[in-house]
Write a structure and sequence with these properties.
Blueprint: H1 6-10, H2 18-45, E1 49-55, E2 59-60, E3 63-64, E4 67-73, E5 76-82, E6 95-96, H3 101-108, H4 117-120, E7 121-123, E8 126-127, E9 130-135, E10 137-138, H5 143-150, E11 154-157, H6 158-165, H7 170-187
Helix pairs in contact: 2-6
């Protein structure tokens, strides 16, 4: 019997019965509600200091511009964007590749990908030194070209991050499981 993975529970794109599509979309939405806490744990485990989460006070060209995180590591400041969950647009953009960069930019509607974002984005009086993009997964063979095209320093796969976190963030997972259990038990 094959092992159940997060990906097998939330990814779309293949031909599936309607009930399974509904289940995967629902699970993907739940994952979308807790992903920032999981990412926060991963960043901390990897030596980053979280300066801001769901940051709405940063400015790009003087205008408030939201990013998912502002991090610091080794004295450098990074803005982080997390985009594209596995069921988004029926899974068409779940894997970042050179062939879907234009739809990615169009759908994201953020200046994060602009070449001048690093120079123009200010968080609490400080300019950032780099940008990190977290996507569900990306075409590994195209990584350098993707980073260049999207004007980012790093691209991380959330799918891989989830595998790395397995067994390391049980407190976070258990907290949300308890919240969900309370709701579903009350609905019965």
């Amino acid at each position: 019997m094959s092992q159940v993975t997060v990906a097998s529970l939330v990814e779309l794109g293949e031909k599936l019965p309607k009930s399974e599509v509904e289940a995967r979309k629902f699970r993907a939405k739940l994952l979308g509600l807790i992903y920032e806490d999981l990412l926060e744990a991963w960043f901390k485990l990897n030596g980053y200091t979280i300066l801001g989460k769901t940051v709405r006070k940063g400015l790009y060209k003087g205008k408030r511009t939201a990013v998912n995180f502002v991090l610091e590591k080794e004295g450098k400041l990074y803005a982080v964007e997390s985009k594209c969950w596995p069921a988004y647009l029926e899974g068409r953009l779940k894997k970042l590749s050179l062939s879907n960069i234009e739809p990615v930019k169009r759908e994201s509607k953020t200046p994060f990908y602009n070449e001048d974002f690093i120079k123009e984005y200010v968080y609490k009086g400080r300019n950032i030194d780099g940008k990190i993009l977290v996507w569900w997964e990306y075409e590994e063979a195209e990584l350098d070209k993707l980073k260049e095209a999207l004007k980012v320093d790093q691209i991380l796969s959330f799918k891989k991050i989830l595998n790395e976190l397995k067994g390391k963030v049980d407190d976070v997972v258990n907290k949300y499981k308890e919240f969900a259990d309370q709701l579903f038990n009350a609905l019965k």
